[in-house]
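Board work, copied verbatim: TonB-dependent receptor-like beta-barrel domain-containing protein
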Amino acid sequence: MKAYCSTMVLLGFCANTFSITAAASDTKTTHQQQFAATHYDNDNLQALHGQNALEKVNQLPGFTLVQSNQQRGLSAAGGNVLINGANTVSKSESLSDILRQLPSDQIAAIHLYSAGHPFSTASQFNQLVNIITHSPKLGAHWQVRSKLTSAYHAYRPSELAAQIALPSEGWQHQLNVHYQDDRSQSTSQFQEIDAFGSMIEQGHEAFFEKRNGRLLSLTSQPDLVDSRLVFSTKAVLDDFQTEQNRDNSSPFLWRLDESESRSEYEMAVDWQKESHHKNQWQIIALHNRKLEHIHSATFDHAAIATPYQQHKTQQEQVVQLNITLPNTAYSPEFGIEISRNQLDAATNNDGDFEQAQVSEVRYQPYAAISSEINQQWQLYTRLNTERTVLKSRAKQNHKAQLGFIKPLIRLSYDPQSNWDMTITAQYQVDQLDFDDFVQSQDAEFNRAQSGNLTLRPSQFTELATQLNVQLFDSLFFNLNLYHQWQKDIHEFIQLPNGDTMIGNAGAAQKLGGALSATWDTSKWLTGSQFNLSYDFAHARFDDPLTGSRPTDGITPHDASVEFRQDGSTYNWGLELYLPLTETNYYIDEIYTEKDQIELSAFAEYQLSKRLRVRGAVATLNTAKYSYVQHYFDVNRLGRYTGTRRIDERVDPVVTLSLLGQL
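↓ predict structure ↓
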């Protein structure tokens, strides 16, 4: 899918956007349970301008939002922002979507932990934010959004959403509805040359995509004392239509017509209990079911199409138990997560029919302790274990029983001044992508991939350090550095029968880091600040075909710069995205995707106490992307045979929104 294709913003509350009454402290910094936290409440909270939790969190100095809801189970999902001390119990929405739909008038306080925290369910993160909420009053927040692009024949509403709080006697209910009609369009020039530089083919391409999405969710919570019980249910429906044409002046166009429908249904229960001794128990249960249907027809400069159909059904059931004893010696934590996942796929590729299934049952108990070595040093130790039974079948059957011990040690240093540091050593096992077990195709780039029934998870040992620094009361930065020793990494491999698939390719080493900096420029312009985000990565892999090379899909550099000004009745900003490059190593192809500098802008103004207007322009300078495929005979060890290049252009997208509350 092309880089510019629209990403639907699923607007809804999940099980963690429940509310409890909380008392916010006026203290700027506290050291509860051996962990330092910066509190934003009252005037400090109001200084974080924004209409929702996401806008406020993005203004926290030196904080970088991390999210991942695509992981199976609950332990690896969620992100480094909690709501009322709990992870987001949702697989159908990202953490950003959830925070975006938590109105600012429901936020009582925001606690920022920069070097360790007391929340066991998010132990993989050094930096963490906990949002404390008020009980909502009867009311509704609504949003109408309209886009002006070349993909629309007329200026029309493209998004309608409403979030309704319905408190009743003894209960709190929140209902969310959302509808989106999103369209994207681009034009491209393409050419293909042979090994001697002679032109083989050239022409132009037109791309159009339409996305129609609907979401309905309901969250309910009874009013309880010393405990919290949340029920949530959710339904998401998405329909896609893609049309892609390439004209090279031949009698017939190359054309791709594809339709895809996705539906997802989710139910979750989250119960938490706190005793008089502050001991905490939590039980979470979740059921998620996804259906996906793809129908495509590819006309390769011919009147007859090559058909492709695929139907997928994926189910997940998870139960998680967490126990925390903060007032006991070493503040022990215990828990277990049990999950069952299954994917069924039926694929018909031009008459070649295959039915595949992959299922997984995982048991993940853990135990952790924390201790204060002295006033500045804290030690957190956690032992995660995993027992997995993995079954897969297509033309053959395969069963594997996997066991892993995954320790984590975190040493935090906080001199209670303007800086702190964390050192972490851990052993991690990546989750398997079930889609790699079934065959797939990429008609746009003429690629096909077989499923690998014997795929094992990749693993790595990591040594990392994090540094948080505040300079001159106006400059904050967060620096993360890591070194990974990886094994069983996933790369494209080829079997003796010629099938290409994702497989375990051996060992690699990876160096990387991330820098997040905030410069408060209120001294020159009230309420203004610069934000810098920069990620880098370097990894080497000993390829049996061509020798040492970067690992597949790595992005060496990723950077953005933002300037924004936030006031009580208005805010505006500019964001600059620096060029990005990603390279993939297929068996007989090296593929590189690049973009150029992109500039985006937004402005928002409060028309009245309950109504705001927002305007935004994406790719203000016109987005440009290049896709380059270098081909080789048989494999990348063979002779070079030619290059295909596609240069794509996406015009600016103007969005106008009205946001209000009743």
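The CA atoms of residues 189 and 204 lie 4 Å apart.
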